[in-house]
Amino acid sequence: CSRPQKVCLCPFLPIHPLKVSTCLYIIQHPAEESRVLRTVPLLAACLPPDKCKILVGRRFSEDRYPELATVCRNPNTLILYPGAEASNLEEVAVMSSSPSVMIIIDGTWSQAKDIFYKNSLFRLPRQVQLKPNISSQYVIRTQPTNTCLSTLECAAVALTIMEKNKSIQEV
């Protein structure tokens, strides 16, 4: 978990990585890398390395990130970002049976908004959102409102839905 021994969370992580078919691309704002209470390292520790790819930056051009560009053009790729254009993830998951890729932006709301709107690649995948009635249980770092979730919680809920496996969220 990369935390000091006194506050180590490793005993709470799964012994073996979770078996999932969905691949997550975490687009992390550079400011998140230095936060002590960030959740992406915990997420990465729970998943196989080939199912959790972390890209750090603010700008993601097709030239510098050809793999990401290919992923964004794939019809099975989803981007988890709420808004008027977003479909409910549960409805999309019911219609999909093939393994997919999900992009999640990691940062504060203003950082995520900046990344989403300044990178045209992120408007290529189908935009999805979680139901607004989920409340955060991540008590280590305070969320702006009760319905804001940490990146770890978003990924856990999304994987639970995509994998049709309720135990993922609890683990």
Automatic annotation (TrEMBL):
<keyword id="KW-0808">Transferase</keyword>
<comment type="similarity">
    <text>Belongs to the TDD superfamily. DTWD2 family.</text>
</comment>
<keyword id="KW-0949">S-adenosyl-L-methionine</keyword>
<protein>
    <recommendedName>
        <fullName>tRNA-uridine aminocarboxypropyltransferase</fullName>
        <ecNumber>2.5.1.25</ecNumber>
    </recommendedName>
</protein>
<dbReference type="GO" id="GO:0016432">
    <property type="term" value="F:tRNA-uridine aminocarboxypropyltransferase activity"/>
</dbReference>
<dbReference type="InterPro" id="IPR005636">
    <property type="entry name" value="DTW"/>
</dbReference>
<dbReference type="GO" id="GO:0008033">
    <property type="term" value="P:tRNA processing"/>
</dbReference>
<keyword id="KW-0819">tRNA processing</keyword>
<dbReference type="Pfam" id="PF03942">
    <property type="entry name" value="DTW"/>
</dbReference>
<feature type="domain" description="DTW">
    <location>
        <begin position="1"/>
        <end position="169"/>
    </location>
</feature>
<dbReference type="InterPro" id="IPR039262">
    <property type="entry name" value="DTWD2/TAPT"/>
</dbReference>
